[in-house]
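Throughout our pipeline, every protein is held as a single compact record rather than as scattered files. Nothing more is needed to write down the fold, since each code stands for a local backbone conformation. The record that follows is passed on verbatim for readers who wish to inspect the format.
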Amino acid sequence: MRKPKSKLIGIIAIAVLCLALSGQAMAADSGPQKLSFATFKSGSGWYIMAQTMGKIMLGALPKGTTVDVLPYSGGVGNPMLLAKGKANIALGFPVETGQAIKGESPYKTKAPGIKMLVGNLDTYWYLFSVRGDVPVTSFEELKAKKFPLRLVLLPKGSSGEWATKTVLGAYGITYEDIESWGGKVTFVSFPTAVEMMKDGQADAFAHVSTPGHPSWTQLATLTKIRFLPMGAKVGAKLVGKYGYRMSTLPKGAFRGVEKPVQVLGFATLLMATDKMPEDIAYKITKAVCENRDELVATYKGAGAFRPQNAPDVPLPLHPGAKKYYKEVGYIK
């Protein structure tokens, strides 16, 4: 008679354990989400990619979830939107995001809660162009000649403007130096910069770019330009300090690029904060990584995306993203 009783106790114990595990699983299900997704202006590559990501997320998250794609505010602004709770998820760049986490320029406060979900979504370069008639072929020569450069940039605080100030600073050049040499630094829109370069009102323009970027393509088509190379020593310094990577602008990338040019490179990433539930972060990461073809169909830049490289960015991963990458063997 003891054996049946022992079996009964065992069955009861297993049932209790199953109920407990079921309760844990239910507790891990965070339910429908109301997500605000920070990107960049309407019509931009980021906005288009986010629209597709939003659809992918809706297919993976609990029924009743909504994803509101915001047409603002770009690589510099998005980390702070997350930190202030004005967005739940955002696209960004590793350099600016790393600076935001540490609370270093261009940020005044730390945002340690930012966590990465998916990295290396595309290819970006930092490019510094000069008109073909400008007698300067390197940053070192610009400084040595104290050339009175008329430099046009996008508004202060944009990713390209911050990168330009940082790169020039690494070469020991400030905006004030350029103006003291008789040059000028002007902040304008991208279309205005193209027109000023074309008409000879500006000597140089610097900003970030993706392969085949339409505005850069227009500039290179309308105006004979060349790109200043990033020196190996200064480049290594910027890579080590800010998380850039050395990259190559390939021959033929734009009109006039007759041979490869060494430049700084980086890529878009998808991020959230530690306030996002682990199961939601896991589902978003999994959905984006496993729907690459859908991203590429609407955003050609995602052609460079390789899911196995998604966690390969020197930023803290969200626990939910980490769980996914471990499951598929992308990290240990």
Remarks:
- Residues 126 and 208 are 4 Å apart (CA to CA).
- The first strand starts at residue 34 and ends at 39.
- The chain has 13 helices and twelve strands.
- The two ends are 50 Å apart (CA to CA).
